[in-house]
Predict the structure.
Amino acid sequence: MKKLRIVDILKSEREISIGDKLTVMGWVRTKRGSKNVAFIALNDGSTINNIQIVVDVQSFDENLLNKIYTGTSLSIEGELIESLGSGQQVEIQANNIKLLGEANPDEYPIQAKKHTLEFLRDHAHLRFRTSTFSAITRIRHAMIFAIHKFFNDKGFVNIHTPIITGSDAEGAGEMFRVTTLDVNNLPLTEDKKVDFSQDFFGKETNLTVSGQLEAELAALAMGQVYTFGPTFRAENSNTSRHLAEFWMIEPEVAFYEIDENMDLAEDMLKYVIKYALDNCADDLAFLSKRLIDEEKSKPEKDRAPMELIEKLKFVLENDFIRADYTEAIEILRNSKPNKKKKFQFVIDKWGIDLQSEHERYLVEKHFKKPVILTNYPKDIKAFYMKQNDDGKTVRAMDILFPGIGEIVGGSQREEDYTKLRNRMKEMNVPEQEMWWYLETRKFGTVPHSGYGLGFERLMLFITGMGNIRDVIPFPRAPKLAEF
Ligand code: 4AD
Ligand code: MG
């Protein structure tokens, strides 16, 4: 008998016809019914939609039926029939029911009712079984695929950059140490420092914060490359937008100036948004409805101005605003929330770093569109960014999105050997450890640019979820490494 997934049973061009026999397997979402007939909503993760199983109660062992609850796993043999009810076109009349695994309703945590996201975070091992998380998980897959497709179709080469490194790419010192030394009995040097020459790699190593530096090495020969890997940051920020382990997409392109870098980033973001609209319609519709319900419980003034799908289309159809950091500071300085001291961090002078409250003001209140900010003060950006002739700013670009703030961070890179070396000295970036990075500027250097897209920040935007811990299967954050 043909074994089919629910998505293939529910699609309009299915392989089998009404009256055909088939097998379907999945987990029970709900069971309801009367003395004579029971209806089981079954889901197998292939789609947000359930298939309805119609059970003629009299023809089955009562004991078996009494063991079927939310969460129970079943294998059903039956006949495809046209549905009498509204909501679905077809259903399955059960001929044979095999109980694969019980789920005692007194113990199974995921019941057929609304659970809070916090509760589900504590049950991350089972939250894939909810509609919300299965939708997010399918969209996450689609976005990974779309990103690879975007770069592949443009002729980019994917590079695996190392996860264990000896360098701090962002120079922010927020790294997780990797060691095989016995932490209870550390070998010491003569001047009583830890002797890392005895460690596994014979030197200090960490988990990477970015694949950029190695991607640059590849770009300066391959032309256009990208990495898509896990990155790790030990910043102690317990926010709804930070993870200690997140995934980053980092293209790096030789012969690119900053404007071309902006074009690439804008094209990529629009491409993946369109891909989601075209390929994840059912899941997006579900998440959109979920958000609308959630918004209803908020006071009118706090509600989102657009529903999810409308928001995705809006970003797709509008050019991103491109503005200078200096212009942004002027806008923020003269803004109402700044004058009324509504910002947590008041904007009082040129040179300060923007917080997410400022980024969101620019996007949501002032420009009302995604914004690409450029030419930031050099002192708040990393050592590798190309220095402008004014001596004060660098050719950085951050892309700011509604509801998120910074979603992309990138720059044109400093390709001049002397300027780069001087900047590294000024910022105490250890030159001896980065000799290989400097050599690319010594031999056949060219202008080049790249950026990093935080994959989970993108997922927040596409799904409309409010907390980054809900768009990655197993979040890692301060004091959180369960599962
Ligand atoms: O702005 P960042 O730090 O840039 C870099 O790492 C560069 N090396 C990228 C490059 O030019 N190749 O990080 C890039 C993006 C941010 O814009 C944000 O979307 C995301 O990574 N990000 C985080 N996402 C989740 N949790 C965190 N703790 C994040 N830190 C950065
Ligand atoms: Mg950044």
Notes: The chain has 14 helices and 17 strands. The radius of gyration is 27 Å. Residues 284 and 452 are 25 Å apart (CA to CA). Residues 2-112 form a domain with the OB fold (Dihydrolipoamide Acetyltransferase, E2P) fold (CATH 2.40.50.140).
